[in-house]
Amino acid sequence: MLLHPYIPEDILTDHKTQKTSLRRKHILRDEKEKKSKQRIPHQFLADSDDNEYYENQDRAKQLFVDDLIGADQLLRTNKHNPLLTARQLALPSFDYLFPLIAESQSTRCCDPTILVRSIEHLRSSLGYSLYPQFINCYTWCRDQLSQLSLHPQYAKTYEGWKHGRSYRSLLNLCLEFLMTDHDDKTEGEYEQAQKICREQYDFARNMTEVMGSMNAIVSCQRPQVQPIRQELLQHFYKNFADNPLVIQKWLRLQSTACHPDALSHVLNLLDHPSYDSHNPNFIYALVGGFVFANPLNFHRSDGQGYSFLADQVLVHDQRNPSVAARLCKGFEVVTGLDNKCKDVIGGEIEKLLRWESLSRGTFEVAKKIAESI
């Protein structure tokens, strides 16, 4: 009996078998490519296999081109949903990427400095490649906010507040990309970005716009920007010196900045008259900001960032043990670091455990970290 009027049963069976086998091969190939692409964001930064590393580098270049095209399209269609556009253009954070990369490596570790540099390199590359688009998008957001300010009654409504929040979110994100440092940027582009940043600070309508401009200028590492940086920091402090909540923002802004002298700035701010070492919120803003939100400087190769944290834990353990225990958790990142960093942190943890008057809460946190090394 024939299953097909023109094809014999044995030939039809072989044909189906070959077709099924071919389909299975395609499925396996697609799954392999899918898994390979999923591994790229985790492994192209640091891979123990040289061949796979260079292969992933080539793939990463193509991914960057795809992301570049996608970012360009987002900037051109920002009118639909500015808040969504801002969130789509935001780069993944260090806290999100670090454990993913560490877990994907055979050594179960990740170099925090390389990771931070990679994120900043991507940010500066996008800021340079899409500079005109970011300028246009920033100008559009600023014009929309100006229109809202002409209708104060509408701006006070929920819809007005929602639109204003969306525009400001995209506005500050564009400014962040515009202020990035890139070798191929022209002096004219640098000057234009600095002028825009200064104008936003001078004519800010609210604290969100003020902090957006401050964050962009304080994080900039170009030597030409340092005079403006100091000027704005002093002006900001002078205007809000009597407001503790805003001063906490001022302290955190400096402690989290990716500035090469961030640790020196934090040490100087510990003696600043506005810093209250007995207030947990001030401690978390300055010390906590440096430890938990400034990985580039906290994980310094000389180990001074780790030593600074251990000293602060001992200082605050005598005043407020709960604050000290919370700060000590900054060492929990040790599980994803290399052996050199583990040895340095292990030495600092041993120093804490040898402290006779160490509180119970801090001791338990330190002991748990020591056991994980």
TrEMBL record:
Molecular function terms in GO for this entry?
aminopeptidase activity; zinc ion binding
Instruction: Give every Peptidase M1 alanyl aminopeptidase C-terminal domain span.
Output: 71-369
- Keywords on record: Aminopeptidase, Hydrolase, Protease
Q: Does the keyword Ribosomal protein apply?
A: no
Q: Which InterPro entries match?
A: Peptidase_M1_pepN, Peptidase_M1_pepN_C, Peptidase_M1_pepN_C_sf
Q: Which PANTHER family match?
A: PUROMYCIN-SENSITIVE AMINOPEPTIDASE (PTHR46322)
* Protein name, UniProt field: Aminopeptidase N
Name the species this protein comes from: Reticulomyxa filosa
